[in-house]
Design goal:
Elements: H1 3-12, H2 14-22, H3 28-39, H4 41-54, E1 56-58, E2 61-63, H5 67-95, H6 105-115, H7 117-121, H8 132-153, H9 161-178, H10 183-193, E3 202-206, E4 209-213, H11 215-238, H12 241-263, H13 271-275, E5 281-282, E6 285-297, E7 300-311, E8 314-322, H14 326-334, E9 339-342, E10 346-353, E11 356-363, E12 368-374, E13 380-386, H15 390-397, H16 402-406
Antiparallel strand pairs: 1-2, 3-4, 5-6, 6-7, 7-8, 8-13, 9-10, 10-11, 11-12, 12-13
Helix pairs in contact: 1-2, 2-8, 3-6, 4-5, 4-14, 5-6, 5-9, 5-10, 5-12, 6-8, 8-9, 10-11, 11-12
């Protein structure tokens, strides 16, 4: 099964594709590692970029979620989206006889996984708050995919497909509300689905090359999740607070390894290498300070280097951030979202140029402006300043060796 071709087919020719899916021999591990776990990374990563790297807001105020908090949210949303898909499959299977259908766990899971395609791909719109409504449209199309898939795979009476779909959606919403509080109940089941036999690597084109997703890494990550789930279950039975806390920590680390395995995170570029790209001066503005950090938030590699420049009341900040192999997923995702937004106080724009993604935002009163670019290898370079224009920031950016930064290599998979 080719992931990209299958995603295209289910979106553009759902009725014909469901017929083909119905006769395919597969298992839960294959459905998750070769399809769901890959697509689920899109809304998780794009949400992180939108909240922590680009920011959101209005009326002249931009809010960004701190990097570590953003990574925590990314991992949690990623894992819970997979749990949600699994639970959706259980709901579909359990309700099948009520609507004249046949119970079949693997067919029900097929419906849950493939019907989620539109909603997961729509997660790319979380990059920009102005495009969030398009993500809702994508999610609504997933309801149509569910409607067309149920009678083919679950063999329910065609005239009952509408009611069957509605009941499944209502049940899924209820589960979605409570799943965060009771995720440990479902973790043993979802964890066991993430293992299985490893298959060949999946390769996807990006603006700057390819992203290779090694399913061998997913198998190892899935086993960690399964082991963490068993330990959490044992800790809960023991009612030992220390054991429960330790088990939760291990589960969080295992969840991070699942996400890292899904996109082949590898290692981040050394922060000192990023620091070397910080000029001593920007258009005559001297460097007044810098901050360099290497870290691995939640087991996901990160590094960053930033510097402040200023004189005569003008202050500019240059920052270079690497989030490991996730950055290449970011580059691919950002390449899919381009647009512009303007109101009475501010304006922003996202576009592609030379294989890079560029984003600008400025206040019309001249109080603040920012200019970001995601390079071909996923590095994020941003410049922002008070009392500075976009043209000035673009001039500052031209003094940063972006080609040299794109030439930096990560160790490990990417």
């Amino acid at each position: 099964m080719n992931l990209i071709e299958r995603a295209k087919a289910i979106l553009l020719q759902p009725k014909e594709t469901w017929v083909a899916i119905e006769s395919e021999a597969t298992d839960a591990a294959t459905l998750f590692t070769r399809y769901a776990m890959v697509l689920a990374a899109i809304p998780a990563v794009c949400g992180f970029i939108g909240m922590s790297l680009i920011g959101f807001g209005g009326f002249g105020v931009t809010i960004r979620v701190p990097l570590v908090a953003g990574l925590v949210n990314m991992v949690v949303s990623y894992v819970l989206s997979l749990v949600g898909i699994f639970v959706l499959g259980l709901i579909i299977d359990a309700l099948a006889p009520t609507f004249g259908g046949q119970k079949n766990p693997i067919q029900a899971l097929k419906v849950a996984v493939y019907a989620s395609t539109a909603a997961l791909l729509g997660g790319v719109f979380s990059l920009l708050p102005a495009l969030a409504v398009l993500g809702l449209v994508a999610a609504l199309y997933s309801i149509y995919l569910l409607y067309t898939g149920l009678p083919v795979l679950m063999k329910n009476l065609p005239e009952k497909s509408g009611v069957y779909t509605a009941v499944v959606i209502v049940a899924a919403i209820v589960v979605g509300v409570i799943i965060g509080a009771v995720s440990s109940i479902f973790m043993p089941r979802s964890g066991s689905l993430m293992g299985g036999t490893a298959g060949p690597a999946i390769t996807m084109n990006t603006p700057g090359g390819t992203v290779s997703i090694d399913t061998t890494g997913l198998e190892a990550a899935g086993k960690k999740m399964e082991e963490a789930a068993r330990k959490m279950e044992a800790a809960q039975k023991s009612q030992d607070p220390a054991a429960i806390a330790a088990a939760r920590g291990q589960a969080a680390a295992a969840a991070a390894s699942v996400l890292g395995g899904a996109v082949g995170a590898g290692q981040a570029i050394a922060a000192q290498s990023l620091k070397a790209a910080l000029p001593e001066k920007l258009a005559g503005l001297p460097r007044t300070g810098f901050d360099v950090q290497d870290g691995a938030a939640l087991g996901l590699p990160t590094s960053q280097a930033s510097a402040q420049y200023g004189s005569d009341g003008k202050q500019v900040r240059l920052e270079i951030v690497d989030i490991g192999g996730l950055g290449q997923m970011a580059a691919m995702s950002m390449g899919m979202a381009q647009g512009e937004k303007e109101d009475q106080t501010s304006a922003e724009k996202t576009w592609q140029e030379g294989g890079r993604t560029l984003h600008t935002r400025y206040e019309k009163d001249g109080s603040h402006a920012e200019f970001k670019t995601i390079l071909k290898n996923g590095l994020v370079v941003s410049i922002e300043g008070d009392k500075a224009s976009i043209k000035e920031l673009q001039g500052y950016m031209s003094q940063v060796d972006l080609s040299g930064l794109e030439g930096l290599q990560r160790k490990g998979k990417s």
